[in-house]
Design brief:
It is built from 1 helix and 6 strands; from the N terminus they run H-E-E-E-E-E-E. By secondary structure, it is α+β, with helices and mostly antiparallel strands. It folds into 2 domains: 97 residues, no CATH class; 31 residues, no CATH class. The termini are far apart. The chain binds zinc ion.
């Protein structure tokens, strides 16, 4: 009886260590996925109560908050498992983010790069069409 409780405790402790170790590995993988796409991690929180946790024991679910390429805060959830990598519930939509850099305009007369708000070319003085 006493012995079996000890074994149970040891098993529980091992499980806890295993889950903790996996969560560190998972968080690094999630961080890499977001950073590869130009985002920055704000927080990654393990969510043990996410749907599916009790049925798919080899998967871990995380609530992920990050800023996308344009600096917009995004929140999503993802799940990871040893063999399948990272799956995002609804994101990250980093690749669909609109480009921040406005394509440069050029003066039609001298070719000088012109800001869209300028009314005249600072190089040759020609009036611009876009302002
Ligand atoms: Zn010009």
């Amino acid at each position: 009886m006493f012995r079996s409780n000890q074994i149970k405790f040891a098993h529980h402790a091992l499980n806890t260590i295993r889950v903790f170790t996996q969560s560190v590995v998972d968080k690094n993988r999630i961080k890499d996925e977001v950073e590869v796409k130009g985002g920055r991690i704000v927080s990654i929180r393990w969510n043990p109560f996410a749907r599916g946790w009790f049925f798919e024991k080899n998967e871990r679910h995380y609530d992920v908050t990050y800023t996308d390429r344009s600096g917009t805060m995004q929140s999503t959830t993802c799940k990871t498992s040893l063999f399948t990598g990272v799956y995002w519930a609804d994101g990250p939509r980093l690749e669909e983010a609109p480009p921040r850099i406005i394509p440069p305009h050029h003066c039609s007369k001298c070719g000088y790069a012109i800001n869209a708000e300028w009314r005249a070319c600072p190089n040759c003085g020609a009036a611009t069409k876009f302002a």
